[in-house]
């Protein structure tokens, strides 16, 4: 299992998890859901207490990934498989992400 903190404007909004079977889960923190002033990270992931689950990386996060030659270079330099979308997201969206959302590795299991 791998897990990452999802930050919205430098505040932790929730956790993205890739399970050992390759499925994904995103869950907002309760404090994020309860605060009406904090928006959802995406229109496709409205705020709710229940986790979102998917067999594939959620489109919102997938669209944050580089493509083409940029993806090839990043994968080669970081020794990441081309189809390791979670690993690629962790490398590319931790500092330099378009928009308000960033992804940060967590040691939490």
Automatic annotation (TrEMBL):
Keywords: Kinase, Transferase. GO terms for molecular function: kinase activity. Residues 5-103 form the HipA N-terminal subdomain domain. It holds the Pfam family Couple_hipA. NCBIfam families: couple_hipA. This is Phosphatidylinositol kinase. It comes from Parapedobacter pyrenivorans. The lineage of its organism: Bacteria, Pseudomonadati, Bacteroidota, Sphingobacteriia, Sphingobacteriales.
């Amino acid at each position: 299992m791998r897990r990452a903190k999802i930050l919205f404007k430098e505040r932790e909004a929730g956790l993205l998890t890739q399970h050992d079977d390759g499925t994904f889960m995103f869950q907002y923190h309760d404090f994020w859901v309860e605060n009406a002033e904090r928006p959802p990270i995406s229109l496709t992931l409205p705020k709710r207490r229940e986790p979102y689950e998917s067999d594939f990386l959620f489109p919102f996060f997938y669209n944050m990934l580089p493509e083409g030659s940029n993806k090839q270079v990043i994968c080669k330099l970081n020794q990441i498989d081309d189809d390791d979308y979670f690993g690629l997201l962790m490398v590319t969206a931790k500092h330099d992400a378009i928009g308000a959302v960033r992804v940060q590795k967590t040691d939490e299991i």
